[in-house]
Amino acid sequence: MKNLGTIIAAIVLGVVLTAYLCTFQVRFTEVAIRKTWGKADKEAITEPGLRFKWPRPIQSVVVYDKRTRIMETRTEETRTGDGKNLIVTTFALWRIADPAKFHTNFPGGVEDGERKLRTTVLTYKHAVIGQREFRDFISTNPADRKIREIEKELRDVVAKDAREQFGIEVLELGIKKLGLPQSVTIQIFDAMKANEEKKAKQYISEGEAKAADIIAGAKAVEQRILAEAQKKAAAIQTDAQRVVSEYYKSFNEYPELRIFLDKLRTVARALRQRSTLILDTEEPPWDVFNPALRGKPSATGSLRVAPSMDMDRLAEPTKRPEPENPAGGKGGTTPPGTE
C-alpha cells in the first residue's frame, strides 16, 4: 500500500514536469516565437492561449511584450542648415510589429532593439534638421515655424527604416524639448530686439504721418468753420448797424425824452432794494427830486420832471407809445429808449 502511494505521486510529478516542459502560455499582451534546434519559426504566435512544444533542447520559446513602449533620446546639440545650433530632445512611441524579424536582428532582447532604434533616430534627426533653417524652428512669425512638418518628415523616414530592417513599428516620433545654447540665445535675442525696434520705428513713423494728416484735416475744417462764422458775424453786424441806425434816427427826433427816460430807469433800478441814499439832487439823474429845479432845463438841455411814476414799472422796459399822426390814426416814429 505504501509503494502504491509513492508510485501515484511519482506519476503525478512526472505529468506535471512533462506539462511544464512541453507546454507554454501566451498572454494577450505578448507574442511568442517557437525555435526548433535554435532556428526560429517563420510565423510568430500572436493569439493568446496554451501552446505545445517539445522540451529543450529540441524546442524553446522566446516571448516579447507587444504593448507600446516609450523611448527618449539624449539631449544634444544639432546644427541647422544655416549654421545655427539647436538643443533638441526627441521621443518615440514604438512596438514590435514583426517578432521573427526583430528576434533575428536582436537575439539579445528588447534592450538591444531599443538601443538600435535610438541610434537610428539620432542619425536621421541630424540629417533632417541639417536640411532646415533656423527660422523653421524659432521665429517671431508663426507662419515661418514648421516644427510639425519636420516631425512628420522625421517620423516617416525613421518608421520606414525601422519596419523594413528591424521589424519595429514607430507609432509616433516628435520633438520633446527644443532649446538654444547660451551664445546662440544672446545673438537671437539681439536680432529679435533689433527687428522689433525696426517695427516700432515703422509704427511710429506711420502714426506721425497719420497724425499730420488728421491735424491738417482738422485745420482745414477749422478754417472753413471760421470763414462761415465770420461770414455770419459780418451779416449779423450789418443787420445790427442797420437797426442801430434806425434807432439813432428815432433818437435824434426826441433826444430830451430819451435822456429823461434813461434817468428814471437808473433811479428805479437803484431804489429797487430797501436802502438809504444820500444824493445830490442838483446832479442828474437825481435832480428830478429837487422841487426848485423841477421844470427847469438841466446842463444837458433836458427838462426836469418830478418823479410821480411807479419806480418798479420804470425799471422794466416800457412799450413804445403809438403817437397819433396828423392823419388821425396811430403810427409814426417810436421814441427811442421806451422798449
Can you walk me through this structure?
Among the domains are: 21-65; 69-186, Tetrahydropterin Synthase, Chain A, CATH 3.30.479.30; 252-315, no CATH class. The chain has 339 residues and is an alpha+beta fold. The model is unreliable at 305-315 and 317-339 (pLDDT under 50). It has helices at residues 2-22, 99-105, 110-129, 147-166, 182-253, 255-270, 311-315, and strands spanning 23-26, 30-36, 39-40, 49-52, 59-65, 69-72, 76-79, 85-96, 168-179. A hairpin with a 5-residue loop joins strand 7 and strand 8. Helix 3 crosses helix 4. Strands 6, 7, 8 and 9 form a 4-stranded antiparallel beta sheet that branches. The chain has a 3-stranded antiparallel beta sheet with strand order 3-2-5, covered by helices on one side. Strands 1-4 form a two-stranded antiparallel ribbon. The protein is 47% helix and 17% strand. It is rod-shaped.
